[in-house]
Each structure stands twice: as structure tokens, then as C-alpha cells.
Automatic annotation (TrEMBL):
SUPFAM superfamilies: FMN-dependent nitroreductase-like. Residues 13-180 form the Nitroreductase domain. It holds the Pfam family Nitroreductase. This is Nitroreductase-like protein. It comes from the Eukaryota. The lineage of its organism: Eukaryota, Fungi, Dikarya, Ascomycota, Pezizomycotina. It comes from Aspergillus cavernicola.
Length: 206
């Protein structure tokens, strides 16, 4: 393994789900913007479709987002069941920022019309593209000293979030990456399946 691949894999190995986050950042907002800008320009997509859209919410906007999530879930599950959910949502709100990952539906539809032989695959390819952006953002932010966790409160929050942050209705929300300065130490590594169960190799030198 070369030094180049070791550096990349070390960053991936260090990625964790941090749930105790504070409303501060070891890097300036401009650097957060630059990281996400680079990721959205460099991450590949099927047919170079570039379907992913990103919304960065920091500080007050981040708080506003989680207040919206709280109001939507309170209305959905009722006050009797809400306290436990509210505790979890408050932990996300206590962080510094949230990255919203969207997929642009008109782009997908246009590709389905243009490449009819592959039409049934473009939605799956869109999800794969989004997943790559999510992982790259997660790893890159953690490499800068931020902790993060990935949430999925879509689609029940989509309408109110789109209205609050002027998000086009054609964008489909896929995930929310919450980040901030981590507290409480590094979470333990999760158990992984034996590599022999999940990897097969044919040909080449062993």
C-alpha cells in the first residue's frame, strides 16, 4: 500500500458517527464552503449527470432547520410521544451546521428520456451519486477536526424546508449530515463482517 492510498484509507477509517456535538468549528466557514464546493465538483456521477445538489446550513440557519424538523415531528407523532424524539433532535440542533443533500429530478427525467435503454437505472444511479457525495463530505469534514452524523428525516420535512430555504421543489432531499466540534472522545469502531464473507478475488497475484 502506497503513502497516497494509506492517507485516503486512514481518513476513511477515522470516520465515525459523533452524536455529541457542539456549536463550534475548528475551521472557518469559508473553508467549509470550499470543501463542499470541491466535493460537488469532483465527485463522479453516472453519465456525468451531476444530479447532486447541496445546501449548507450554518449557525442560525442550522438552528432554524432543526426547529422545522421538531415542529413537523411534533405534529406527526403528538405531544405524548414527542419528548424522547425532541431529546434526539435537540442533540442535532446543538451542533454547528447541517449539509442537506438533494437530487435534481428534472435532470434524472431528462436522462431517462435521452437514454431510453438505461431509463430504469437512472434513479438508482442518482442514489449512488448522492451516497458518494455524502461519504466524501463526511470524511473531509472529519479530517478537519469536525464530528458528524448522517440523518434521514426526509420526506416528511421536505415541503417546509424547501419553503424556508428557497429550495426548488424539483430537488429531492436524500440525507442530512449534521456536524460540529465533537465531545466525549472517539466512538468505538463498529463490528465488521469478516472480509472473506464480503470480498471475492479472481485472477492476479495473491
Amino acid at each position: 500500500m502506497t503513502d497516497k492510498s494509506s492517507t485516503i484509507l486512514a481518513s476513511l477509517a477515522n470516520r465515525r458517527s459523533y452524536y455529541t456535538l457542539t456549536p463550534s468549528s475548528p475551521i472557518p466557514d469559508a473553508q467549509i464552503h470550499s470543501i463542499l464546493k470541491s466535493i460537488i465538483h469532483l465527485t463522479p456521477s453516472a453519465f456525468n449527470s451531476q444530479t447532486t445538489r447541496i445546501v449548507i446550513l450554518l449557525k442560525q440557519s442550522h438552528n432554524q432547520f432543526w426547529d422545522i424538523v421538531k415542529s413537523v415531528l411534533l405534529a406527526k407523532i403528538g405531544p405524548e410521544r414527542f419528548p424522547k424524539t425532541e431529546e434526539k433532535l435537540n442533540s442535532f440542533r446543538a451542533a454547528y451546521g447541517t449539509v442537506l443533500f438533494y437530487e435534481d429530478q428534472p435532470t434524472i427525467a431528462a436522462l431517462q428520456g435521452q437514454f431510453k435503454s438505461y431509463a430504469q437505472h437512472f434513479e438508482a444511479w442518482s442514489e449512488q451519486t448522492s451516497g458518494m457525495h455524502q461519504l466524501m463530505a463526511w470524511v473531509a469534514l472529519e479530517a478537519e477536526g469536525l464530528g458528524a452524523n448522517l440523518q434521514h428525516y426526509n420526506p416528511i420535512i421536505d415541503g417546509k424546508v424547501a419553503e424556508a430555504f428557497d429550495v426548488p421543489t424539483e430537488w429531492k432531499l436524500r440525507a442530512q449530515l449534521v456536524f460540529g466540534a465533537p465531545e466525549g472522545g472517539v466512538p468505538a469502531e463498529k463490528e465488521k463482517k469478516p472480509v472473506e464473507e464480503v470480498l471475492k478475488v479472481f485472477g492476479g497475484d495473491t
